[in-house]
Design a protein that fits this description.
The structure is a homodimer.
Chain A lengths: L1 H18 L9 E2 L5 E6 L6 E5 L6 E2 L1 E2 L4 E6 L6 E8 L2 E3 L16 E4 L17 E9 L4 E9 L13 E5 L8 H4 L3 H10 L7 E4 L10 H18 L9 E6 L1 H11 L7 E5 L6 H7 L6 H7 L2 E7 L5 H13 L5 E5 L5 H14 L3
Parallel strand pairs in A: 12-13, 12-14, 14-15, 15-16, 16-17
Antiparallel strand pairs in A: 1-2, 2-6, 3-4, 3-7, 5-6, 7-8, 7-9, 10-11, 11-13
Helix pairs in contact in A: 3-9
Chain lengths: 357, 357
Amino acid sequence: MKRLYFILSMLIILNAVTAQRPPLINSPEVHPDHSITFRYFSRSAQKVTLRGEFLPVGLSMEKDTSGVWSVKVPPVNPDIYPYSFLVDSVELADPNNTYIFANERFKRSIVDIPGNTPLMHSLQNVPHGKISYRYYHSATLGTTRRMLVYTPPDFDASGKLKYPVLYLIHGGSDTEETWTRVGNAHLIADNLIAKGLAKPMIIVMPYGNVRPKPMSDFTKEVMNDIIPFIDANYPVLTDSRNRAIAGFSVGGGQTLNIGLTNTDQFSYICSYAPFTATEEFQRNFSSWNPAADKINSQLKLFTISVGTEDFLYESVKKNLALFEERGIRVKPYIVSGGHTWMNCKQYLTTTLKELFK
Amino acid sequence: MKRLYFILSMLIILNAVTAQRPPLINSPEVHPDHSITFRYFSRSAQKVTLRGEFLPVGLSMEKDTSGVWSVKVPPVNPDIYPYSFLVDSVELADPNNTYIFANERFKRSIVDIPGNTPLMHSLQNVPHGKISYRYYHSATLGTTRRMLVYTPPDFDASGKLKYPVLYLIHGGSDTEETWTRVGNAHLIADNLIAKGLAKPMIIVMPYGNVRPKPMSDFTKEVMNDIIPFIDANYPVLTDSRNRAIAGFSVGGGQTLNIGLTNTDQFSYICSYAPFTATEEFQRNFSSWNPAADKINSQLKLFTISVGTEDFLYESVKKNLALFEERGIRVKPYIVSGGHTWMNCKQYLTTTLKELFK
């Protein structure tokens, strides 16, 4: 009797829990052949479309009798891709997928299609570093802010060993989490370090969308707050030969502005598909008359990466021409692909192999 | 001429960037009097409704001529609340708000209404600990998994100082990030430690939704993988007097199952609004005949918390009666409020003050 009573209460409680919720759905489901099934539950939607950076155009989804819309996408090239659902006229992230693109202006989900052999950005059976979420005081902005700090596997906090540091900046509406959540920067570093292809290093991922002056104030913030915080709280090598800066899109423009005006502080400057249509870039470089020999001797590596389908491709070619014209040694890294985080992971992989060598 | 050309290219590039995107919208905007304006952009929606855990029913939003829907909510009691938009029939997170409820089955945003004096869960001007994202190997599950580890301000990694540990488990469809992203567990700890109200401790937040057997396999995982990983990688006190377990909802049920069957390992068991309609709970406790005196002497604190509006309130009262009937000393912590993360923050605050004293 007691048992029956218990089972009845169980059912009542379970019902109360589940009644509030849509059915449990598996989405995205990545199949062994790299095809993917996406699913979305709605009884009332008229039309549901899948949008994804692996698709040239949206794909219509079909509804079954239980209200689950789905579509199976043919095999996709292994990578991590953003996607979303367009439900009637509303774009949204996949409610059943925990993995979200960290961004301030949209909510998209990400799907990871593993390779037949593990990719450089995949979770592999190697020693893992860790990502720490840190608060720090910004005197520049008069507030407390957050940054992410990757420390490598077997990190020695004692100070006996000192590490080089890469400052890594996200794109325009991204956040301090985008390089790890979408770019898998920590796993790329883990894998390259395990293979001996990159040096153990600390990677600092600050939040670059400083308002109201995202360019000039962020430069101050990096130089006056972020670098001193890292130097004070981590066992790091503080000379320019052990300090690198890299960034994507708006962060690629910030990288050029910060790096090239502080070549005594950074020997490595790696700009990914930089967005340079900014007042700060113009102020710094339109009538720039650099001591090219000195800068070339200070820099161990200056690269600009871009994909040939990137909407900034022509702009980046002009950036390259500008720096070459002024006698600055710059290494172009031009690949296929667009202004995407698939490309970002490639850029970072290439960069990490070349730093601090 | 060169300058004009530059400005023209700037405009073309800016246009290319912005054309793809909806207008920049400030949402949520929390006003000084604790009223809040929510905004959502859609030219095509027929109806947009705000849903929030600070509202008894959804609030209709109004569209202006530019396609921005908005509603201003009268002053709200300072706290952190989940909310979402219902656009026609589609529920979604606020596209303009970076702060997302970490959950596997829905996407909601969170809004933080600060108090006139800082709340215990707010970012205050005190020393901050850090949250680390760690991978570990689970022998139980044969895979690599992720946990979050909070280390307190001025954490000494050298091993000279050893810390007590709280294992803190999320709710049923939450993730290992929910306690920090929604519960601000790290800030509650920072603030209580700064005031001398809690001992410096390590807080371990594992991922509890172990599949296919979320109850029994998670118990094994905690005992055989998670605790050994922490003991091996952090300077911790490993006796039961320095080990606590707490959790919410399904995690509250897991807390009872793990804690009460391992009273030689945990002297502190704090269960928040436990969901106990599970086979594991029934197996462990329906015909439980405990050595109550021994257990009471092993436990320094055993509490069960619940809100009087919680849908599990009646169930929790039965749990309390069950334990009392078996002679186990349990301290009820009954407050107002429902099965919410607003309540969770209260439960955790109370717990942290009582641990390791």
